[in-house]
Amino acid sequence: MTQDSEPQLYSLSRRKMLAGLGAVGLASAGAGLGTSAYFSDEESFENNTLTAGTLDLRVRYEASYDSGDTVENMADAAMGTQDGSPAGMFYDLQDVKPGDSGHVEFCFDIVDNPAYMWACGDLSQAENGITEPESAVDDTPELGELGDSIVARLSYCDIDDEELVEGEEIVSGSLVDVFAAIANGAALDGDGVAGLAPGEQSPYDEEVVGDEEAYITGACLCLFWEIPYEVGNEIQSDSLTMALEFHALQARHNDGTTNPCTPTVTTRTGEGFAKQQEFATEQETSFARGRFGNNGPSGSWEVAVGPDVGSADTANYVWTPGDTVSFSYAYDGSGTASFTLDGVNVGSGIPAPSGKLAITTKADEATVSVANLALDLDGVPVTLSGPDAISASNDGSGREVTYLVFDTDAADVANAFAISGDVTVDVQGDYSGSEEGVAFDISVE
């Protein structure tokens, strides 16, 4: 029926290296100097070369886990140096529970040039079924609550006489909040000063002479987490996966504003309603819609946004078949969404988004084409890995329904985001005028 209305894990990406220029040969230069034929000399400068420097990032990491006042340093699994391929799973906790806590520390070795450091990350959650005690308190059987239940903070830190010393706090809140804050990239300060905008931070430029090799370093980064005792059965069997990525960009000739963490979101297309085909609950928490209508009296609308059809804010719009017009959907990160179609704007309060975004196109004796789609996550334009257009076309019985889904997750949509694009609606002469026959929806999980 169609409708219109693993346990904790960290992984580090492959290190980021700046390749440089290689070797550049300069032609020899000569100059003749003299006062007469009797006095002359010639000096030449040959085999001049310029060789680019190198920049290589290594990440040293160490983690601990405190359960029942027993601290496990996890030396065999959760400490070492990451230099090259992704670290994979080094923080694998199978049975976390209320009262548990832990931390992960990351320190940076840079060879050979001072560099600006950036951190970015991603988090996804899984419900893994509902236990009998959990069912009594969990009203979202397809959405995991573990990340929202964990209290976390990301801070600068240092080691003093083998003791961990916490420095200035970068961000705190739930674990979902922390990862949302760095999802699109966070500039790190080499001196461990929090709250600086990109371009204001200091590079990592502290020189260290090691036993085998000199390197450059700066402030370490620590993630602290705790599951409060008052958290209840709603997290039973839930799991989450965290991925952290660090980038070093040569500081020379750079100002620190270049963000190497530009996110990429995968898109896919399919047939049917996106919410039923792609959302875990087969329902949307909110939507926006542009439908082809007659610009009639109250109740016969063409533009809407809200939690559902019955409580949506609506407006009228006069379509011109065949014309391409722009649209945009924006969520402010604080419970309010707005939808604009060719200058006509509506706004509404909505529940907090929790996952995927989608566009559904519906056509009955018509063609609906959505193109030039763009996604912005908290002010950062996203690279779409996949199609940026979707269309439906029908000339016969029934209607065609197709969709494009953005594979975003809870951390991606915890803050402000926006979808924009162009839409073209072209109805045929035998279109019956059904209010839901020709439309496109923006669905939010």
Q: Can you give a write-up of this model?
A:
- It comes from Halobellus rarus.
- This is Choice-of-anchor W domain-containing protein.
- InterPro entries: Choice_anch_W, Signal_pept_SipW-depend-type, TAT_signal.
- This protein is mainly beta and 445 residues long.
- It has two domains: 56-250, no CATH class; 264-444, no CATH class.
- The chain has helices spanning 132-135, 146-149, 175-182, 274-278, and strands at 23-26, 29-36, 39-45, 48-51, 56-67, 70-72, 79-82, 101-111, 115-126, 151-160, 163-174, 186-188, 206-209, 214-217, 220-226, 239-250, 264-271, 286-291, 303-306, 313-315, 324-331, 336-341, 344-349, 357-363, 366-377, 380-381, 383-385, 390-394, 400-406, 417-427, 439-444.
- It is elongated and about 80 Å long.
Q: Please estimate the helix content.
A: under 10%
Strand order of the largest sheet: 20-19-18-31-24-29-17-27
Strand content: over 45%
> What are the segments in which pLDDT stays under 50 over at least 5 consecutive residues?
5-40, 132-138
List the total number of helices: 4
Cα shape: elongated
Query: Radius of gyration, rounded?
Result: 28 Å
User: Distance N terminus to C terminus?
Assistant: 19 Å
Average residue pLDDT: 82
The structural class is mainly beta
- Overall number of strands: 31
| Domain tally | 2
Largest sheet entry: 8 strands, mixed
InterPro entries: Choice_anch_W (IPR049671), Signal_pept_SipW-depend-type (IPR023833), TAT_signal (IPR006311)
Organism: Halobellus rarus
Protein name: Choice-of-anchor W domain-containing protein
